[in-house]
């Protein structure tokens, strides 16, 4: 069985990771894994259990009970928690408000990194994996690592449009808070891998970013 070609895409919220990763996966016929959705799904399940997401010990004790399954079809990605399809629910404001403290708990990251590596190993020809610690923790031997960036204004506009909100100022403030939490947490902080290719998406179209990454894949295969 051949080793899947892994494209690891990291970057802060709103940098275009999801759209880019799905576009690259479609173009190459690869699988697609949204690791952020996994953390959101766990958060949804913990909230459903009425676990205090601000209590790291309570989160650590409960996370082992949560069962999450991620589909890897870029045309129809799915995510379930405890057998429930939560693709819509994990994008809601309640989950968004609680996912950062849950994601920072080491036991949560350990559990989900294990599941992510299992999905990668079963990917077949190749897989595009997006998140915040893919190149630095999850798939450190990925042959292609990408770190997407964009200025805060561009990221806020994208995220506000995605969420149907017209308040880009509030969205920008929320993104900056998330950046602070993600980049300073003790376990698996958001960071650019030393061998990652950095792409600033501020002034690029989605197709331009996808084209650049697909070209890099063909150069390295």
Key descriptive features of the protein:
alpha/beta, 50% helix, 221 residues, globular, Rossmann fold, 15% strand, 5-stranded parallel sheet
What does this structure look like?
The strands form two sheets. The chain has a five-stranded parallel sheet with strand order 2-6-1-7-8, sandwiched between helices. The two termini are 17 Å apart. The protein is an alpha/beta fold and 221 residues long. β4 and β5 form a beta hairpin. It has nine helices and eight strands. The mean pLDDT is 92. The protein has a single domain, classed as Rossmann fold (3-Layer(aba) Sandwich), CATH 3.40.50.
Number of strands: 8
Task: Quickly count the helices.
Answer: 9
CATH topology: Rossmann fold
Our estimate of the beta-strand percent is 15-25%
| Secondary-structure arrangement, i.e. CATH architecture | 3-Layer(aba) Sandwich
What's the mean pLDDT score?
92
Distance between the termini: 17 Å
Task: Give the helix proportion (percent range).
Answer: 40-55%
What is the name of the CATH superfamily?
Answer: P-loop containing nucleotide triphosphate hydrolases
Globally, the shape reads globular
Main sheet strand line-up:
2-6-1-7-8
* SSE succession: EHEHHEEEHHEHEHHEH
Structural class: alpha/beta
**Overall number of domains:** 1
Rounded to the nearest angstrom, the radius of gyration is 16 Å
Strand count, sense and barrel status of the largest sheet are:
5 strands, parallel
């Amino acid at each position: 069985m051949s080793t899947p070609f892994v494209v690891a895409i990291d970057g802060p919220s709103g940098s275009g990771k999801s759209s880019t990763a799905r576009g690259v996966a479609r173009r190459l016929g690869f699988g697609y894994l949204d690791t952020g959705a996994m953390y959101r799904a766990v958060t949804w399940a913990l909230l459903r259990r009425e676990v205090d997401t601000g209590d790291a010990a309570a989160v650590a004790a409960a996370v082992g009970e949560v069962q999450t399954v991620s589909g890897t079809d870029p045309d129809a990605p799915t995510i379930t928690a405890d057998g429930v399809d939560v693709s819509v629910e994990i994008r809601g404001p309640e989950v968004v408000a609680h996912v950062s403290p849950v994601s920072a708990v080491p036991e949560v990251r350990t559990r989900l990194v294990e599941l992510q590596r299992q999905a990668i190993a079963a990917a077949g020809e190749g897989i595009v994996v997006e998140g915040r610690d893919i190149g630095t923790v999850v798939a450190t031997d990925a042959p292609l690592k990408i770190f997407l960036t964009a200025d805060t204004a561009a990221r806020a506009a994208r995220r506000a449009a995605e969420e149907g909100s017209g308040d880009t100022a509030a969205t920008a403030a929320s993104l900056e808070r998330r950046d602070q939490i993600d980049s300073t947490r003790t376990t698996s902080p958001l960071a650019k891998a030393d061998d990652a290719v950095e792409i600033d998406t501020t002034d690029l179209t989605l197709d331009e970013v996808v084209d650049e990454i697909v070209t890099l894949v063909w150069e390295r295969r």
